[in-house]
Amino acid sequence: MKNIKSFILFFITSIAVYGCEDNFDPKLYGTLNPENYPTTESEYEDYTMTCYIPFTTTWQYQIANDPGQHSFYIPEGGILRVFEAPSDNMAAWNLGWGSWMKLSQADYRDCVYAERSWVGEHNINHIPKLAQITRFTEIIATLEKADDQIFKTVSKKRLLGEAHLCRGLMLYYLMHIYGPLPAIVDKDDINNENALKNLVRPSLDDMTTWIYNDFQYAMENLPDAVKEHGRYTSDYAKFCMMKHCLNEGAHMKGYYEKAMQMYRELSKDNRYSLFTKGDNSYVDMFKAINDFNSEIIMAVSCDPSANGDVSSGNFFPLSMLATPNDASKVDDKGNPTPFNYQGGGWMQAYNVSPKLYDSYEAKDKRRAVILDEYWVNNQGIVTEKVTREDLNKRWSGYIIYKYPIETNTTFQGNDFPLARWADVLLMMAEVEVRQSNAAPSPQAVEAVNQVRRRSGLDDLSVQQTATKEAFLDVILDERSKEFLYEGHRKIDLIRFNKYSQACFKAK
User: Which strand (E) or helix (H) includes residue 305?
Assistant: First the structure.
């Protein structure tokens, strides 16, 4: 079992408030009374923890009277669904049904559904999170008014930093799904009817600035490190700021410089490094035994004992959504397969594009996280293997096995990485050439080569580093393989102005 579980809150009709213990486990305190809550230090901390709700992994959550929502990290409706499925990393799933098929085909005519149910009234999207942003703004305002003398063991600024970072992340993800959206980020607008009814989109620059301001506050006020895995830190805020400034640097003055500043900050004291243990360190990095290793800046901390109930903590059900339902636990000779602990999944709604698989260099160890064949269990008898020859007949694409099935439990306990040092290295290299508009420096080239060497690849050639354009092509290709199924691909493609053409070719 994990030592740490990410904090979980769940609101149904009346608002139940949970506390944050040393191990980040939930604790029920009772019904919230706005007349006298919060008043103590622990109540203010519990109150702030509301902001973590959309960043857990449970099937659904509710805040106050909002409709049931999926968090941004649950595979069904989160960033894998909205940023990985509708990208060139996944083959269009043509053998299934409903909204799963639509999104894998990058079909946005009905916007983004957050459930796997049949098309209809049960399919929900992430727009109700705008109301939750208003809630977070109210929490920030309440914290700001709190008497500083109340806080003895936990910093008031730390709680405000957590609330700002959570709000900034909500704004960040919503902007990348729907574009600029009207949101309440000014405390004076919390009860302003005109502001609450406003449906006019803000400018891209305005929403970009809101996100920047939240990340800036968080990085200035959060601690560098915490003992609770999954609780946000200043370093994670710096990572988020670096990512945001890279994404928006083309239209926001000074953002590329800010991104490079974040790289320097994260490089101090050599706090992070590429994980390099084992014969294939890239594969081993995602095993549960290596959670929060030297490369991980932040991750969603999951527990293998969690069963999907909100009270049991974060769980990780990706394998059930990425494994064909007829996958066998053993091969034709009775030897265990990668699915020995699980067997078949629910449906292979998520897959890996065969085109992407074929694009890996022969020596690239990262391809080992993709399975290009599997044994079939046909009514208890193992007689056949599904292979490439069965594409578009038995399956649409290959199996992602990046987060291995290691325990005989309902779901897996692998942590879901949110920020890795490899990403910082590749972002730095990209920022540099975008800022200089010239061929990369030796430092930028070395950053990419570090990531490639870990995967068993040779250093980049002279041709690959001769121009800005050639180097950016390399970085985009590296990112597709390094961060496969970590929820970055659609945002990456849009930043490189290749999303439309890449999806057209793939879908």
Answer: none
Q: Can you read off the two tokens belonging to residue 319?
A: 């394998």
| The token pair that represents 285 in the structure block | 């990095």
Distance between first and last Cα of the chain: 40
Tens-place pLDDT, residues 54-108: 999 888 888 877 777 889 999 988 999 999 999 999 998 888 766 677 778 887 7
Handedness of CA 418, 420, 422, 423 (dihedral sign): positive
**H/E run at residue 4:** none
Burial of 434 (0-12, 13-18, 19+ CB in 10 A): middle
Q: Nearest 10 degrees: CA dihedral of 28, 33, 34, 36?
A: -100
In terms of C-beta density within 10 A (0-12 exposed, 13-18 middle, 19 or more buried), how is residue 126 classed? buried
376 membership: H or E segment, kind and range: strand 374-378
Q: How far apart are CA 39 and CA 328, in angstroms?
A: 56
Two tokens, residue 260: 């490079």
Nearest CA to 201 among 184, 179, 185, 181?
181
Taking Cα atoms as reference points, which of 145, 304, 161 lies closest to residue 226?
A: 161
pTM: 0.92
Question: What would the two tokens of residue 270 be?
Answer: 């050599």
Q: Which two tokens stand for residue 225?
A: 């490190």
